[in-house]
Structure formats: C-alpha cells, structure tokens
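sorry for the late reply, my laptop died twice this morning and i had to redo everyting from scratch. anyway the thing you sent over, i finally got around to it. pasting the sequence first so we're on the same page, its 332 residues, then the predicted structure underneath. double check i copied it right bc i was rushing
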Amino acid sequence: MVTIKKISEHSGYSQATVSRLLNGDESLSITPDTRKKIIHAALALGYDRSKIKTTLEKIAVVFWLTEQEELQDVYFRQLRISLEKYAKINNMEIQLITHEDHVLDILKQVSGFIGIGSFGKEELQQFKTVCSAGVILEINPEAELFDTVKPDTDRITKKALDLFIDKGYSEIGFIGGAFFNPDTQQEEQDSREIVFRQKMSEKLLFKEKYMYSAGKFTVDQGYQLTIDMIETLKEDLPEAIFVASDTIAVGVLQALNEHSITVPDRLELISVNDNDIAKFVSPPLTTFRIDVEEIAKTSIDMLVDQIVHPRKITKTVSLGLELIVRKSFLPK
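ok and here's the structure:
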C-alpha cells in the first residue's frame, strides 16, 4: 500500500506538505516544481489517482479542425467531449487549442497534448521541441516522435468486404472522402480506400468504375459523389457499397432515395462510425462502431504514462470495431 509517508520519503518533502497537496488544500503555497515532484512521486509509486483531490497536470488538446468540419463529422465532436470527460476523471486540466491560437507558446506551458486532425511532419517536429509528451489520434506522420491511438479501420474494411462476398456479391462499390496531406497540400487516398483496392484486387473483383471518393467527410460530399455514381453508371450500379463514414452515408442515402434506388432491396450498404444519426436515417445503417469513449480513455492513459514514466520509444494502439447490424445490410 502506498502511504503518505512513502511518498514523503520518495519526494523529499514533509508528510504534511504531501498530505495537504494530495487532499486539495487550496491554501497550500508551494512552487509548481515542488507540486510536480510530489505528484509524480505519488503516481510513480502507484498511488490511486482517484484519491488525489488536486489537479494533477495541465494538458492540451490540439484540435486541428475547423468548427464547420467538426459539426459535419459527429465523430470528432464526440471525441473531443470524451477527452474532456476522461481528463476530468484523471484530475487533469484541459485546454483546447485551435489554428487561431499560439500553439507553441501554449505547449510550453503544459505537461502533454493530444492531437486531433491533420498534422504535417514539420509541425509535429516543432511540437516536440517544446512538449515531449503527446498522443496523435488517427493519422500520425511522425510515429517515432509521439504515441498513436487509432481505430483499426483497415481491418474492418477487409471485414466489410468479406461480409459482402460471403453473401454472394461481386459488384462492390466504394464511396468515401480523401485524406488531405498538410505537407504536400494535396488530397490523397484514405487508408480505407487503399485497403479496399488491395483486397478487391486480390479477390479479382476490383472495378474502377465503382470507386467514388474525393473531398471531405461530409453529408454534402456523400450526396454529390452518389449523384455522380448514379448519373455515370445509370442501371449498372453495384450490388453493395462500402461507405467510409456514417456522415458520408447520410448523403449517400439521400441521393439514392431521391432516385428511388431502394436500400437494401436494390443494393446494400455498410458504413463506419456508428454515430447517433446512423439509427435514425432510412433505412437505419449497418455500421462498424468506433468506441469513441475507449479511444479517449486510451489516449489519456497513454499520455499519463508518458508524463509519469518518460520513455524514449513510442507506442501505437489500434482499437477494434464492433459490427452493428441494422437494415441497410443483413449478413448471410
């Protein structure tokens, strides 16, 4: 059992100072360095974080999306809210940073950060010079500098295709957005599209005419891509479509409904995310659920680990996804 006495001996400060700090005594006057040493000593010894009544660390969430992008993609909004929740549970003060802020100045003042959005290599290298502890979510172009937490969308893309193929479908399409590379300022294929192309080619089923992807992961983009598909292919539509996100899938369904193309009678859909809206569209979406709560929890845990136990190596965690079956696709 980790006692106040052990923390006092390990940190070099009196038991009274240690006790007052851990119990959240606001009248206690100590330097930030002293505070940091006591807290780190307690955590390093394995003291229960939930018993500490004072703010342990100040961290930042570097949110590299515009407000409009966040509104369009419910996933990122849920992620930001969940990060704030788990930071609070861990007695961490959190500061949100956007493009408009002086990010390097802020990062100098925090113990670590979590990055959401598209980051360039040079940008992350600059972050490293002022803040050694960090976790990048989704795409990390500098995985040797900071930890990475991501949903395993590559694996579920393969799983979705297996589900379609097991049901006898060979004419399978893809609708998705693109990854914007901040280093080249160019759109590139999203990893889901790359895996889709590889898997379908291996199965000798790939057809370029069924590929529709470009732009951002928005409802409007999904709608326009589907209109393009309908106008181009006419009666030669695929039997099934893998859609890269629920947000895009909402636009896909709107376009299909306008043209009286029924789902799942004429074609079936599988999507990704399981946003709240997925269950309310018509028909309700069969989709792979990304556990946003677990991504947030894992990110905070990994950041705490870096702060308390600094290490030279980085870690990458890929989280699995759960298939939620609704009406847009029924497995065999």
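The chain has a mean pLDDT of 91.
thats about all i looked at so far, will dig more tmrw
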